[in-house]
Specification:
Blueprint (H helix, E strand, L loop, with lengths): L7 H33 L10 E5 L7 E7 L2 E8 L2 E6 L13 E3 L2 E3 L6 E3 L5 E3 L7 E8 L2 E10 L3
Antiparallel strand pairs: 1-10, 2-3, 3-4, 4-9, 5-6, 6-7, 7-8, 9-10
C-alpha cells in the first residue's frame, strides 16, 4: 500500500471522530435552539386579566415602584424608553429590586450589584445569570395595569 493511504482502522477511527463531532454539534445546536425558544416564548394567556398596579401620576420618569399585583411582587420602572413591569426579586439572591437603583434603563440589585435591563429583564452584569421575569403593561385612563406572565427576558 502506498504511503499516506488510509487503512481500514484509520478510516473507522476518522468516521467515529466525525460522528462524535457531529453529535456534539447537534447537541449544542439543540441546546441553543431550546434556550432560544425559552427566551422568546410568551406564556401569557389571553384570559389573564389586566390588573391595576398604580396611578401613572405616582411614578415620574426615572423612578421605580414596587406593587402587589395579583399576589405577586412586581416592580414598575418608568424609564425614558417607557414603562416596564418586572418581578421585584433578584434572580441571584432574592433581594428586592425596588431597594436598588434605576440608572437609565439599567436596574441594579441592592445586595450584590447584579444589573438587569429594565426593558427586557436581560442580565447586564454579574453575579446574576438568569433574567428577571417580565410582564405586559399598559396605561388605561391614567392607571398603570399589568398582565402577569411567567416568562423571562423576552419582551
Amino acid at each position: 500500500m502506498p504511503v499516506g493511504w488510509p487503512n481500514a482502522t484509520t478510516l473507522k477511527s476518522e468516521k467515529r471522530t466525525r460522528a462524535q463531532a457531529l453529535g456534539l454539534a447537534l447537541v449544542i445546536v439543540a441546546g441553543w435552539a431550546d434556550a432560544l425558544h425559552f427566551m422568546t416564548r410568551q406564556e401569557i394567556s389571553l384570559t389573564t386579566p389586566w390588573q391595576p398596579a398604580l396611578p401613572l401620576t405616582e411614578l415620574p420618569q426615572g423612578q421605580m415602584k414596587a406593587c402587589n399585583v395579583g399576589g405577586r411582587d412586581v416592580l414598575i420602572c418608568h424609564t425614558r424608553d417607557g414603562l416596564f413591569a418586572l418581578d421585584n426579586t433578584c434572580t441571584h439572591a432574592s433581594a428586592r429590586m425596588s431597594e436598588g437603583r434605576l440608572r437609565g434603563s439599567r436596574l441594579i440589585c441592592p445586595l450584590h450589584g447584579a444589573s438587569f435591563d429594565a426593558r427586557t429583564g436581560k442580565v447586564l452584569g454579574a453575579p446574576a445569570i438568569r433574567p428577571l421575569a417580565c410582564h405586559q403593561l399598559r396605561v388605561l385612563d391614567g392607571m398603570v395595569e399589568v398582565q402577569l406572565g411567567d416568562f423571562a427576558g423576552a419582551t
